[in-house]
């Protein structure tokens, strides 16, 4: 085979060399096109990752805004609860005062009732004493006196009943305010728990996309190293060719495409 290759005409060898160079150039062109397509896909993927990262950042900012709004609502609820507790305490103090007043009225009523019973028990004695002591001018004056006592008793009973009604109303309002405050605080705590869950999910998505971005950057670095190796191989081939053919090297070191054209 060596003798057969040596026996080839120079023009034939030149054609073979040209065909070999054309094949190499075609393969390099195919590799360049494939590399360009990969770089375009990588750029598109990087742009998608950038958009997704911005979207996740927007979501995180929205969640933070939601948390701030929820904190403000919670502060307002706590402030209203404090005010409500103060009002409840004031109502409790008023209810205690009314209860004491009612107790005093009941004791006074009982005292009047005991006095009335004692007067009824000693009615005969009072009638006998009426003539002896002269406290009342007549029986009518005595009846008027007992009528006044009866009206006083009825007024005290009515006032005691009104006090009982006010006490019951105050207790009902106190219970209603406590239930409303408890329900509002429970709703606020549930909303905060939901927002914290969504925030944690958003953080997980951000970490996942940051990992994808790191892998993409690593792949881009590997591709860049591969491009450098290809350029170095083309430069070596160019230098060997120009040295072998003894032609001037008037192409820049970084102009890889011109070096390929020369080869």
UniProtKB/TrEMBL annotation:
Protein's UniProt name: CCD42 protein
Coiled coil: 14-87, 160-205
One GO cellular component term: cytoskeleton
Family matches, as PANTHER family: CILIA- AND FLAGELLA-ASSOCIATED PROTEIN 73, COILED-COIL DOMAIN-CONTAINING PROTEIN 42 LIKE-2-LIKE-RELATED
Alphabetized UniProt keyword annotations: Coiled coil
DUF4200 domain boundaries: 15-129
